[in-house]
Specification:
- The complex is a heterodimer of chains A (434) and B (139).
- Chain A is an all-alpha fold.
- A two-stranded antiparallel sheet of chain A has the order 1-2.
- Chain A is flat.
- Chain B is mainly alpha-helical.
- In chain B, helix 1 runs parallel beside helix 5.
- The radius of gyration of chain B is 17 Å and the shape is globular.
- Chain B starts with 16 loop residues before the first helix and ends in an 11-residue tail after the last helix.
- Classes of the chains: A mainly alpha (434), B mainly alpha (139).
- At the A-B interface, helix 1, helix 2, helix 3 and helix 4 of A face helix 4, helix 5 and helix 6 of B.
Chain lengths: 434, 139
């Protein structure tokens, strides 16, 4: 029944969705209390009501996240396409290049609308001891934690886009995204900190076994927003022994929840690639990414005080999550890292006008360090991609699964060719900075 | 409602006010109200196979028809008069949720029926929370 109704409603227009949203917002307080305040609505009488309220909130928050993300990507795509078109127009005026297409006005620009009351009441009602409740919020925020507040005065200006968008529409759409980010994130730090204060290594296991939490934690650590990644670092420090800095955070999650953590890393990189390819700029997103991924590479490829590198750990390499073997996850991660680095180098030229040279050079140095680290560790990735454990990577020695040297060189070849994409873009970036 | 297809339920009169005015009539009907106020209205009955199943059966009661009711109002764009149906749906949804989340939460009702009303409201909301937009960027 649910599927039938959803299919039919999917064809209904915006007005309907809007009226449903405003109706739900009216009852936000009640829904949030039923979901998160057991004293007001004691179990077992209210168990089903509580579970259905949580299910409802999860669904609404997930859709809000998608709304904000897709709206941002829409605006980025419109700006990107129009600026490409304008470049062709300028070339055509000089008698160069193909005939540029004519401008097509965007008739209806969607404005995102988060359920601000539901988020606000949910954050207010959530108790610090409610691990499952906090998980709903963490999982929801993670889905769009790579989206940054949009600055209409700088990167998200619209003065050159007037051929395709009406200024009021653009301004309204950007404001709506920023309002959505505010409503969904402003109380996040407080909620996670309150949760952290009640968390010790003895009690943490229940929190980290909540569905999706290790994956979301990785994604949240990778968010460029300080008020998202900082509380997550604190939470992880409270949850596990011997976690001092951000690098330890990545190492401990990768060690304890290998498959979920790898899924978080790959998922984040996919989001990054999709976003950075078209946004006017994604400097802080990229900057935080390269810094975090030097930590990730350390955890995967260098030993800690007490343990071997994860890519040489049998436990890590043999872990299975969601039906996906670790060898495949390692290969996927490598591909996504090289693609991400390539996107960064390729887009730098477009992003550079937004920032002063010193800032750009500063973080590009971090990007280069990351790239260099990748070349250093290619052997480790190759070994893991082939499922080798602790072998001397020079030969098919003990612990290997008997793969042929031919297969080994095919894998190495694949990994190297991915890196070549990056090098081509690096060369063009170096030319830019000369 | 169980016997005929839900889409055809309103074929006899497609006016958009009918569903929510009908709903208003039902909820103010004295017999219905008496049913809701009865402390035994919501009970853990066993299902047809004779096994107690809390999740399935604890909601057997005077509000179980609400989800079906909302389904029957769902507009489909390939039918004539869909805009009317949309406004009918919107109005009815607002009334149903106000009924579940406010009216039925009055102190005079037992905790069990209040919880059942909240659950019914949540279930209606979950069903109505359809994916509203197609992806514009391939993901």
């Amino acid at each position: 029944m649910i599927i039938r109704l959803q299919e039919r409603l999917a064809k209904a227009e915006g007005a309907l969705a809007l009226s449903f949203s405003s109706t739900l917002e009216i009852h936000a307080s009640f829904i949030a209390t039923v979901a998160f305040r057991p004293r007001n609505h004691p179990i077992p009488t209210w168990s089903e009501a509580r579970d259905s309220a949580r299910q409802l909130l999860s669904g609404i928050f997930r859709l809000d996240g998608r709304d904000i993300l897709e709206s941002m990507l829409d605006l980025a795509a419109i700006a990107n396409e129009e600026r490409k078109r304008l470049r062709l127009v300028r070339l055509a005026k000089k008698g160069q290049g193909p005939v540029p297409p004519s401008a097509v006005l965007v008739k209806h620009l969607h404005t995102a609308s988060a359920h601000t009351q539901l988020w606000s009441k949910a954050y207010n009602a959530l108790l610090p001891s409610d691990q499952a409740g906090a998980s709903i919020l963490m999982n929801s925020v993670a889905a769009f934690s790579h989206v940054e507040k949009m600055d209409r005065q700088r990167s998200w200006h619209h003065e050159d886009l007037l051929g395709v968008v009406k200024p009021d529409d653009w301004v309204a759409a950007v404001r709506a995204i920023n309002a959505g980010l505010q409503a969904t994130r402003d109380s996040f730090a407080h909620a996670v900190e309150a949760l952290g204060m009640q968390t010790t290594p003895d009690t943490a296991h229940t929190l980290w076994s909540q569905p999706g939490i290790p994956t979301s934690a990785i994604v949240l650590l990778l968010s460029p927003a300080e008020d998202v990644h900082d509380p997550m670092i604190s939470l992880i420090q409270q949850s596990f022994e011997d976690v001092d800095d951000r690098g330890d955070c990545f190492r401990v999650i990768l060690a304890k929840y290998p498959g979920e953590a790898m899924e978080g890393l790959s998922g984040f990189l996919s989001s990054f690639i999709e976003t950075a390819k078209i946004t006017p700029e994604s400097c802080s997103l990229a900057k935080w990414l390269v810094r975090c991924f030097t930590d990730v590479l350390d955890a995967l490829c260098r030993p800690s005080d007490t343990a071997e590198p994860l890519l040489q750990s049998r436990k890590f390499l043999e872990s299975l999550h969601d039906g996906r073997a670790m060898a495949k996850r390692v290969t996927d991660l490598w591909q996504l890292m090289t693609t991400s680095l390539a996107v960064i180098f390729r887009r730098t030229q477009a992003w550079a006008p937004m920032y002063d040279n010193e800032t750009m050079v500063d973080w590009m140095r971090d990007a280069l360090i990351f790239g260099r680290q990748m070349t250093e560790h290619i052997k480790a990735f190759e070994g893991a991609a082939l499922g080798r454990v602790g072998a001397d990577f020079g030969d098919a020695g003990e612990g290997s699964i008997g793969e042929s040297p031919a297969k080994s060189s095919v894998t190495a070849g694949r990994l190297v060719s991915k890196l070549q994409i990056v090098l081509a873009d690096l060369v063009s970036w170096l030319r830019l900075t000369e | 409602m169980d016997s005929c297809g839900t889409a055809e339920l309103w074929a006899f009169d497609p006016s958009p006010e009918l569903p929510h005015t009908l709903f208003s009539d039902i909820k103010t009907n004295p017999s219905f109200i008496r049913l809701l106020e009865d402390p035994t209205a919501v009970s853990s009955t066993t299902n047809a196979k004779g096994k107690g199943n809390g999740k399935e059966s604890s909601n057997r009661g005077p509000l179980d028809w609400l989800s079906q009711f909302m389904l029957s109002l769902c507009p489909s764009s390939d039918k004539a008069g869909s805009t009317q149906k949309e406004s009918g749906f919107g109005e009815a949804l607002a009334k149903v949720l106000a009924f579940c989340y406010q009216d039925m939460q009055h102190e005079r009702f037992e905790q069990e029926i209040r919880a059942a009303a909240a659950t019914a409201g949540n279930n209606v909301s979950i069903l109505s929370n359809a994916t509203p937009k197609k992806l514009t960027i391939g993901r």
